[in-house]
Amino acid sequence: MKKRSVFTKIFGVAGSLILAAALTAGCGSKDASSSPEAKTDTGTQAKAQEIKVGYVNLIAAAPAIIAKEKDLLGKQGLKAEFFSFANGPDLYKALSSGKLDVAYAGMPAAVNWGSRGAEFTIIAKVDDGKNGVLTKGDSGIQQPSDLKGKKIGNLVKGSGVDYLIRAVLLPEGKLTDKDVTLVQMETANMESAITNGTLDAAVAGEPFLTFAELRGLKVVKELPDPAFVVLGSNAFLKDHADAAKKFIQGHIASIEDLNQNTEEDAEVLAKAFNVPEIKGKDKTYTPAEVMAQALKRNQFSYQWTDNDLKYYQEIADNSYTIKSLEKPLDVSSIIDTSWVK
Fold first, then answer.
1. How many of the other CB atoms lie within 10 Å of CB of 299?
2. Which member of 44, 135, 212, 254 lies 3.0 to 4.6 Å from 67 by CB, making a disulfide possible if both were Cys?
3. Where does the record locate the signal sequence feature (predicted)?
4. Looking at residue 38, what is its pLDDT?
5. Helix (H) or strand (E) holding 284
């Protein structure tokens, strides 16, 4: 993987009602795996170990969705509940409060919570991918400097999108967040907000980037996504190490499945994201075709590289520069590469 530079490559305690909503209503939907029991190596029946898995609802977390839909954790002897979240900060609140055991989310939120002493450890890599700057074709926005004075769609402060805007995109255009208006909204609403003029531009990840692109909006610049990783709560990793190891095997199986069964998994993901047919300029795309196109911007891998670790540190350093962190963070203090052999 190519090394990414600074210019080319998050929170307080939430109330219990907000957290409950994240897990059961607006932010999350849960689904227990269909395998409550698993056979041990000796062939006897044993009660499956339970695990709660959270993920941010983006293609970067596809391994979690594939594991859910294909019961890949059940095949490891785990009874899994899955919870989806609209953004990383909400997910981290759930993980830090003990409502989740493991989670798929981005590094910017991880370094923010890690710098505040949150009790979790990064235990696996997930992907490398792309986000993009969306706008109308006739907006006049072609490069970062053109964003001056514009309204830009953003997720919550401390999210991966927020990191990309304030630490990568605006500095490249010699701008700061005082030169633009950042409008917080969920990614799913950004496309319509640009279309109706509420926003001039937005930074979005997949599959929403492809949805908007196929319907006529323009991606004027791609940005390296701020890296998805798997985190485990320290209590879970300590008290249920055997279940954590089984989870890692399921995670690996899910990534291998994605890399080997792209067309099949595109159909699975299309259903999971409720992707509609999209009428483009040249053809009507089936849901699976839409998802297959969105998947092209992501490469999934569970194996660490030296460049991955350097990039994670770069994210931490940049986050401190833009004051998302109150103090510098050595990312090696929140990463344990020994879980993935």
1. 13
2. 254
3. 1-25
4. 37
5. strand 284-285
- Cα 130 to Cα 213: distance, rounded to the nearest angstrom: 14
User: If residue 228 lies in a helix (H) or strand (E), which one and from where to where?
Assistant: strand 228-233
Between CA 126 and CA 62 the distance in angstroms is: 9
pLDDT of residue 43: 40
CA-nearest of 167, 65, 67 to 111 is: 167
Q: What angle do CA 43, 257, 288 make, to 5 degrees?
A: 130
Task: Mark out the alpha helices in the chain (DSSP H runs).
Answer: 16-24, 62-69, 88-96, 107-115, 160-163, 170-172, 190-195, 208-214, 234-239, 241-260, 262-272, 287-295, 306-321
Q: What is the pTM of this model?
A: 0.81
> Are the C-beta atoms of 340 and 302 separated by less than 8 Å?
yes
Taking 70 as the pLDDT cut, the residues of the chain under it are 1-46
Long-range residue pairs from 324-331, CB within 8 A, at least 24 positions apart, any chain: 324/10, 324/108, 324/112, 324/157, 324/158, 324/162, 324/163, 324/166, 324/167, 325/111, 325/112, 325/115, 326/115, 326/116, 327/115, 328/115, 329/111, 329/114, 329/115, 331/111, 331/114
**Confidence at residue 159, expressed as pLDDT on a 0 to 100 scale:** 86
The number of CA neighbours under 13 Å toward the Cβ of 3 is 8
Task: Set out the domains of the chain in order of their start, with CATH numbers.
Answer: 16-128+227-339 (3.40.190.10), 130-224 (3.40.190.10)
Structure tokens at 145: 């400097």
Please, are residues 162 and 154 in contact by the beta-carbon 8 Å criterion? yes
Strands (E), 137-180: 151-154
134: β partners? 202, 219
Q: How far apart are the first and last CA of the chain?
A: 19
pLDDT of residue 192: 97
**pLDDT the model gives residue 46:** 57
C-alpha separations of 146 from 65, 134, 172, 225 in Å:
37, 13, 11, 21
Rounded distance between C-alpha atoms, residue 187 and residue 208, angstroms = 7
- On the question of a cis peptide bond just before residue 224, with omega within 30 degrees of 0, the verdict is no
